Amino acid sequence: MAISAPVWSVPDAKAKLSEILRRARDGERQVIGAQDPCVLLSMAEFEDLQRKAGAIHLGQWLVENAPRGVAFEPPPRSSGRPNAFDVE
Q: Where are the alpha helices (DSSP H) in 1-88?
């Protein structure tokens, strides 16, 4: 994706940070640095980009990254502990 934003030098960006933040909040992406540039954008735009990229939810990530092949032995049910779901 080509970004047609002006490139701020790092010293200029430091001096005009408030203006850069205002522009980013107004929807203008801000590029800082020429050799190894970084892009500043609003949180709303960032979250929108994450949604569009199909950001994975934490629960899905946990399921997909759970350890596999680990032996797990649940505690016995006859431990004398009452069942909280028993209806008496």
A: 10-15, 17-25, 43-52, 58-64
- Alpha-carbon distance values, 31 to 9, 15, 78, 81 (Å): 9, 15, 64, 61
Q: Which top CATH class is 7-64?
A: alpha beta
Beta bridge partners of 33: none
What is the C-alpha R_g of the chain? Answer: 25
Cα separation, 63 vs 83, in Å, equals 27
pLDDT tens for each residue of 46-56: 888 888 777 67
pTM over 0.85: no
- Quick one: DSSP state of residue 86? -
Structure tokens at 9: 């030098």
Quick one: 8 exposed, middle or buried, by C-beta within 10 A (0-12, 13-18, 19+)? buried
